[in-house]
């Protein structure tokens, strides 16, 4: 894969050439810090065994050579030689020609709309997912890529949603309990417990950190209406950015405030933007919940009118049917949403019949870890 390795800047950098004609550069300090030898990293878990202060500040590359599918580098003043697989260098390159545009998403994130997703909702049966790692891998991979998925054939019993979270991680308990009931109540303390329709929203934006996954499981559903729907917040944010770049900038740079005080002894508050970007401009989180929005006081007076116009347009796009995917949960079905990305909603339903759902929260790191472990196991088996 590698065609040349040229040391530059008095050993501070190295320029690598590849068979496809591309070139990438690396810094000596970065390479030394990321060395793969057993003196630098634990062979058992890959954790570093040294700190940045253990690396000489004047580290340089004294020699470099291509040996098969690897690059061998010698560092001074340590007099240390380390080998880097070419595939590893290619996978970890940071020498990009152009800066990414704010709002970018990784290759593993697939944005979607009604047109692309309504007839291809990702789903799996619980019995198969619980015994077949390939079925589970496909289902977890769908959650990672699309931000939601449906699970069929769960036991029709209270607490069955825990079986979904047990497939990949742990329930995140909150003031609502280990799980919570979602059905009509008299004088409820939360609109989710009525038969009213709910606008597409993310849950609990008043928490910091926000729960990253939500599971909703159906035990009984004999009402008219009450369909569930999901909206890809990343796709909506991209549409807003294309239409109104300044509005996107305001919603992603000015914090909103959210709060909840619906039950005794609970006062939750958070200050985060509706559209959150990472330091490098990556789109990482959507927070949208009109019920929990507190007064916005962190936007300059000169920008408030434009901010509210952007907020209104964002809400209009979220309500646009072209972004909405709908389905009706039957008893023994559940769906999971990435609560940092996918908004969920519910249509109003009649007072006749019964609609009993249960919900809980979980953490995305557990899901991603389980998925990565399965994929790693499959890769090792193939090798």
From TrEMBL:
Residues 132-361 form the TauD/TfdA-like domain. Signal peptide: none annotated. SUPFAM superfamilies: Clavaminate synthase-like. Gene3D superfamilies: 3.30.2020.30, Clavaminate synthase-like (3.60.130.10). The keyword Transferase does not apply. One of its GO terms (molecular function) is iron ion binding. Its EC number is 1.14.11.8. One of its GO terms (biological process) is carnitine biosynthetic process. Residues 9-89 form the Gamma-butyrobetaine hydroxylase-like N-terminal domain. InterPro entries: AlphaKG_dependent_hydroxylases (IPR050411), GBBH-like (IPR012775), GBBH-like_N (IPR010376), GBBH-like_N_sf (IPR038492), TauD-like_sf (IPR042098), TauD/TfdA-like (IPR003819). It catalyses: N(6),N(6),N(6)-trimethyl-L-lysine + 2-oxoglutarate + O2 = (3S)-3-hydroxy-N(6),N(6),N(6)-trimethyl-L-lysine + succinate + CO2. It holds the Pfam family GBBH-like_N. Keywords: Dioxygenase, Iron, Metal-binding, Oxidoreductase. Its cofactor is L-ascorbate; Fe(2+). Belongs to the gamma-BBH/TMLD family. NCBIfam families: carnitine_bodg (TIGR02409). Converts trimethyllysine (TML) into hydroxytrimethyllysine (HTML). This is trimethyllysine dioxygenase. The lineage of its organism: Bacteria, Pseudomonadati, Pseudomonadota, Alphaproteobacteria, Hyphomicrobiales.
């Amino acid at each position: 894969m590698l065609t040349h390795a040229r040391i530059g800047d008095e050993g501070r950098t190295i320029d690598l050439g590849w068979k496809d004609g591309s070139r990438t550069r690396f810094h000596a300090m970065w390479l030394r810090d990321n060395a793969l030898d057993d003196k630098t990293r634990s062979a058992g878990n890959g954790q570093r065994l040294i700190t940045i202060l253990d690396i000489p500040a004047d580290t340089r590359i004294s020699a470099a050579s291509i040996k098969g599918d690897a690059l061998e580098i010698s560092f001074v003043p340590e007099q240390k030689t380390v080998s880097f697989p070419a595939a590893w260098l290619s996978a970890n390159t940071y020498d990009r020609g152009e800066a990414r545009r704010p709002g970018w998403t990784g290759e593993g994130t697939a944005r979607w709309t009604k047109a692309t997703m309504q007839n291809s909702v990702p789903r799996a049966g619980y019995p198969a997912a619980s015994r077949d790692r390939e079925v589970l891998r496909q289902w977890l991979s769908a959650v990672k890529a699309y931000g939601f998925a449906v699970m069929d054939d769960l036991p029709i019993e209270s607490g069955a949603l825990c079986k979904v979270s047990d497939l990949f991680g742990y329930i995140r308990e909150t003031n609502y309990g280990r799980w919570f009931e979602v059905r009509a109540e008299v004088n409820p303390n939360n609109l989710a417990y009525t038969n009213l329709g709910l606008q597409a929203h993310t849950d609990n934006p008043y928490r910091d950190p926000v729960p990253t996954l939500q599971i909703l499981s159906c035990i009984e559903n004999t009402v008219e209406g009450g369909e569930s729907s999901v909206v890809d917040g990343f796709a909506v944010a991209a549409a807003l950015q294309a239409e109104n770049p300044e509005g996107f900038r305001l919603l992603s740079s000015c914090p909103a405030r959210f709060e909840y005080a619906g039950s005794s002894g609970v006062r939750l508050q958070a200050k985060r933007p509706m559209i959150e970007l990472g330091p490098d401009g990556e789109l990482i989180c959507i927070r949208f919940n009109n019920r929990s929005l507190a007064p916005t006081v962190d936007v300059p007076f000169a920008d408030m009118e434009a901010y509210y116009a952007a907020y209104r347009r964002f809400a209009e796009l979220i309500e646009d049917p072209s972004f909405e995917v709908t389905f009706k949960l039957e008893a023994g079905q559940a769906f999971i949403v990435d609560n940092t990305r996918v908004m969920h909603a519910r249509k109003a339903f009649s007072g006749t019949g019964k609609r009993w759902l249960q919900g809980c929260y979980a953490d995305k790191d557990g899901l991603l870890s389980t998925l990565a472990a399965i994929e790693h196991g499959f890769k090792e088996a193939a090798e």
